[in-house]
């Protein structure tokens, strides 16, 4: 606890001129990997970064190369836990530089691969199973870590946060207590661009089917999660004006100004207008989905140039430095000690009957 307090004080006083490389010297970074089968028979693979006393070394997880102390002895004390939920075209390695940065600041960071919504398998895209599965997998990750005899002693179970990207951001809202209602879906495609993925024939059918599962009869909120960061989220059409009345954790909303998959005008920006003072909202003007991820290994860059080479290396570095800074500041503010720890009430009792949700009409003049 003393060491974390020291890091928090240093970051608070010096962040104006401290570079990521300098700040990262706060802790050495350890890495463990876990693979477990969940109760519904799904394989869940997870990377866990944490403060360590061991020196890092090169680690090869083809095609990724990382630098951390593999299974290195953990630093003394209990630390906040932050879950990272990746965007759909990503996996547990895709944000490794952010995860290592947060670990160097005094967090245990857990990044699971969502097995049916990842770079390797996007079969559940734009479905209720996609979002429900992510929520279950993230809550299961907390259960797994708190029961792990090696990792649990390093985690303070009262200080848990979640950062979600893309669909992971949508899942983060649900776990924070948001109640989707599809109120904005019928008119959604009238304001979208012609190439909007939600509004081609396949996307309209998937979202309309998703909406038939709503509204929820049971909240998905996990009250163990005390702070939520949502980065370049999608699915904004699921959240009308009443969707956030039971969202209680402090919320950081990050817009990616160059994101063409989930344009900020329609998604994060629309959510910010509804949330108002319930969220702190910042924009990364030059960021798209690829810029938010760690640099791709060469073989992946050849396979996915539209994601891995969407911005220049300099732009990626600038985007990630700002993202690292704002996420560390946010989670340190609310999870850095017990002094500012939010109190989260239990999920509300819901008694609703699902309405008939109409999908958007077929386009007639816009060529879709």
Chain-wise SSE layout:
Layout: H1 2-14, H2 20-23, E1 28-37, E2 43-52, E3 57-61, E4 64-70, E5 79-85, H3 96-104, E6 108-112, H4 128-147, E7 155-165, H5 167-175, H6 201-211, E8 225-231, E9 251-256, H7 268-275, E10 279-284, H8 298-303, H9 305-308, H10 313-335
Parallel strand pairs: 1-4, 5-6, 5-7, 7-8, 8-9, 9-10
Antiparallel strand pairs: 1-2, 2-6, 3-4
Tag the structure with descriptive keywords:
single chain; alpha/beta; ten-stranded mixed β-sheet; 10 helices; 368 residues; globular; Rossmann fold; disordered N terminus
Uncertain parts: 1-24
Q: What is the count of structural domains?
A: 1
**What would you call the structural class?**
alpha/beta
Q: What is the name of the CATH superfamily?
A: Alpha/Beta hydrolase fold, catalytic domain
Largest sheet composition: 10 strands, mixed
State which percent range the strand residues make up. 15-25%
Mean pLDDT: 90
Q: Can you count the helices?
A: 10
> Globular, elongated, flat, extended or rod-shaped: what is the shape?
globular
Kindly state the percentage of residues in helix: 25-40%
The termini sit apart by 57 Å
């Amino acid at each position: 606890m003393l060491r974390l307090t020291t890091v928090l004080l240093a970051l608070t006083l010096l962040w104006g001129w401290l570079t990521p490389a300098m700040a990262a010297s706060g802790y050495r970074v350890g890495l463990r990997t876990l693979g477990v089968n969940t109760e519904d028979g799904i394989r869940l693979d997870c990377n866990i970064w944490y403060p360590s006393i061991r020196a890092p070394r090169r680690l090869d997880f083809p095609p990724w190369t990382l630098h951390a102390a593999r299974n290195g002895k953990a630093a003394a004390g209990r630390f906040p836990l932050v879950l990272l939920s990746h965007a759909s075209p990503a996996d547990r390695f895709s944000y490794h530089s952010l995860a290592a940065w947060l670990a160097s600041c005094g967090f245990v960071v857990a990044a699971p691969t969502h097995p049916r919504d990842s770079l390797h398998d996007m079969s559940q895209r734009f479905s209720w199973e996609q979002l429900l599965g992510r929520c279950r997998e993230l809550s299961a990750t907390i259960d797994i870590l708190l029961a792990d005899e090696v990792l649990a002693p390093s985690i303070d179970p009262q200080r848990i946060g979640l950062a979600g990207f893309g669909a992971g951001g949508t899942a983060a809202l649900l776990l924070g207590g948001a109640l989707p209602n599809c109120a904005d879906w019928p008119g959604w495609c009238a304001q979208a661009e012609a190439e909007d993925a939600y509004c081609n024939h396949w996307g309209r059918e998937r979202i309309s089917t998703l909406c038939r599962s709503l509204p929820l009869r049971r909240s998905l909120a996990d009250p163990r999660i005390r702070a939520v960061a949502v980065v370049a989220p999608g699915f904004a059409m699921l959240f009308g004006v009443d969707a956030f009345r039971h969202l209680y954790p402090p919320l950081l909303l990050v817009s990616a100004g160059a994101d063409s998959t989930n344009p900020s005008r329609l998604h994060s920006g629309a959510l910010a207008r509804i949330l108002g003072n319930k969220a702190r909202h910042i924009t990364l003007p030059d960021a798209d989905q690829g810029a938010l991820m760690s640099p791709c290994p060469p073989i992946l860059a050849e396979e996915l140039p539209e994601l891995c080479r969407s911005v220049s290396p300099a732009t990626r570095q600038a985007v990630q430095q700002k993202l690292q800074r704002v996420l560390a500041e946010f989670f340190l503010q609310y999870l850095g000690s017990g002094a500012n720890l939010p109190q989260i009430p239990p999920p509300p009792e819901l008694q609703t009957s699902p309405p008939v949700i109409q999908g958007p009409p077929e386009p007639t003049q816009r060529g879709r």
